[in-house]
Task: inverse folding
């Protein structure tokens, strides 16, 4: 299918038979979750039917999410609860799971990980067998005699000699002391600096926003003069994780479906995948068109090949396939 329309690269609004061609041409579908399959606890209408049908037709389906707050087991329950009844844990590649894989298999970190993050990250590290400082140890407010020291500060708190990596993810219990401790650990150039993702913010109801992990990472980057290695989208690592666990995943046969141009579409582009923007989430058609007119090559990589109003637009195409 020709991706050019109206003189613009990509941004091809597809429907009906064009979607059917894509469904025939691709054997692997990668979906972002929030804004594509659901909004918080509410499924995008039609999305469960689309995912269940793709799986039922023998397509390979993977989920790539920068949300580090849940372990995969918890995601499986959420998928099921919202009507995605055929999703298995092995299909879910979250930034917390992929960070644990990176620390175990790529960095092979020897020592402990200092975590700025929550339960999703700790559970995945534990399951991967990657040692990390427990929250109580991180937050230890005892003096050398083991007496409570409620006013621990960076001037008097303990620091572990065994920390060899700092991992930053979403942390709604973020404190100045955590930032200060992480900055001290990162003074050691051999201490790895990882971020689950670099998302700036997430939409909430009523126009409110939730600051993303990217803000916390940025604070630490300024304090240390170092740059974090980002595990989640748009970095390629999630796709490498998929390829290493499933044989024969061919980028040319994959479609990456997401709602955010700067992460999902760039991720697809970085991995050599065709990309599809769905308009049920953060980015809108006008945003894609602005990027498509840009002369900067990075911004060209934000431009989706295809656009749909919702992935529910796949449903009529399935009927035509029969
Ligand atoms: Mg999203």
Result:
């Amino acid at each position: 299918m020709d991706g050019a329309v109206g003189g613009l690269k990509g941004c091809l609004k597809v429907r009906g038979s064009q979607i059917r061609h894509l469904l025939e041409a691709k054997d692997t579908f990668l979906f972002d979750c929030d804004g594509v399959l659901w909004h918080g606890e509410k499924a995008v209408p039609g999305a469960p039917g689309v995912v269940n049908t793709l799986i039922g037709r023998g397509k390979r389906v993977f989920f790539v999410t920068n949300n580090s707050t849940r372990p995969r087991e918890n995601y499986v329950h959420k998928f099921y609860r919202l009507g995605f009844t055929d999703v298995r844990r092995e299909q879910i590649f979250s930034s917390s799971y992929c960070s644990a894989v990176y620390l175990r298999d790529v960095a092979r970190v020897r020592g402990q990980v200092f975590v700025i993050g929550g339960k999703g990250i700790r559970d995945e590290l534990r399951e991967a067998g990657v040692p990390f400082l427990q929250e109580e140890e991180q937050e230890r407010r005892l003096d050398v005699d083991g007496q409570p020291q409620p006013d621990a500060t960076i001037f008097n708190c303990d620091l572990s000699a065994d920390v060899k990596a700092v991992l930053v993810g979403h942390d709604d219990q973020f404190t100045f002391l955590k930032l200060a401790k992480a900055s001290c650990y990162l003074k050691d150039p051999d201490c790895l600096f990882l971020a689950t993702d670099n998302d700036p913010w997430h939409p909430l109801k009523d126009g409110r926003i939730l600051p993303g992990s990217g803000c916390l990472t940025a604070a630490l980057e300024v304090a240390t003069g170092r740059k974090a290695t980002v595990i989640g989208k748009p970095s390629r690592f999630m796709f490498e994780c998929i390829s290493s666990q499933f044989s024969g995943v061919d980028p040319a046969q994959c479609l990456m479906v997401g709602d955010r141009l700067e992460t999902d579409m760039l991720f697809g582009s970085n991995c050599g995948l065709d990309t599809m923007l769905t308009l049920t989430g953060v980015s809108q058609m006008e945003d894609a068109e602005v990027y498509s007119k840009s002369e900067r090559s990075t911004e060209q990589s934000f431009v989706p090949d295809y656009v749909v109003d919702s992935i529910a637009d796949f449903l009529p195409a399935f009927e035509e396939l029969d």
